[in-house]
Amino acid sequence: MKKTFILSVIFAVAAVCSVSAQSFSKGDMLLKGSIGLNTSGIGNKDGKASQNLISIAPEFEYFLNDRLSVGGTLGYSNQWTGEKIPNFSGDQTYKTRVGTHVFTIGANINYYLPLSDRFFVSFEGFLGYQGRADRDVEILGGNKTKVTANQMDVALLTVAPAINCRINDHWIVNASIGGFYALAGSAGEKIAAYGVGVDFGTFTFGIGYKF
Predict the structure, then answer these.
(1) Could you tell me which of 97, 96, 102 has the C-alpha nearest to residue 54?
(2) Buried-most residue among 99, 115, 190, 201 (CB within 10 A)?
(3) 73, 105 in Cβ contact below 8 A?
């Protein structure tokens, strides 16, 4: 809720700016992307637990006119959680590591609405493939056991709004919270995977270079 309120304030401030110079023109190219990193943990003498996330998503755009662009996107994220319990069984230490790898590739179309000479709103549509693999491992003493290895392959459609700020003629920063998504595919042999919804909580920040 707090993130949604912050984005609403940003949009409201940008909307009061008068429309002036266009930020893009036909034939412009934009290389942009986002990098995310998050880590947290708790622990005491009885054990430790941690959660980590790293993601990267480069994107290329070619402008068909001053507001519409097409291009392609690659994305990868790795999220893992871990737990360590000393003296779990006699003098042996028990550890678990649960990792999720997500790979995304596909085409995107973007519409830019200028609000001023520096601020503009964009709406990005993406259609492509997303693969997800889970790797769960248990370690007791020196013995390692792979518990599960789940795989999911889906066709993914997303639509996400963003607020953009042009720093100068080349550099641009943008921020987005959430968006619409729909997916359909499989999560293993004879197991269907599907979903439709709106994500209100995922915050992303990126930077781009126009040339």
Answers:
(1) 102
(2) 115
(3) yes
Count CA atoms closer than 13 A to 56's CA, side-chain side.
1
Amino acid found at 148: T
d(CA 151, CA 64): 37
Distance, CA of 28 to CA of 30 (rounded, Å): 7
- Other Cβ atoms within 10 Å of 82 Cβ, number: 16
C-beta of residue 167 within 8 angstroms of C-beta of residue 191 = no
Q: How would DSSP label each residue in 168-209?
A: SSSEEEEEEEEEEEEEEEESSTT-EEEEEEEEEEEEEEEEEE
Q: Are 203 and 24 in contact (CB under 8 A)?
A: no
pLDDT in tens, the chain (211 residues): 444 544 554 554 444 444 444 578 899 999 998 877 767 777 666 677 777 778 888 999 999 998 999 999 999 988 888 777 776 666 667 777 778 889 999 999 999 998 887 888 999 999 999 998 888 887 776 777 776 677 889 999 999 999 999 888 889 998 887 789 999 998 877 788 888 998 776 677 889 999 8
CA distances from 75 to 56, 78, 128 (A): 6, 11, 11
**Cα–Cα dist 50/162, whole Å:** 31
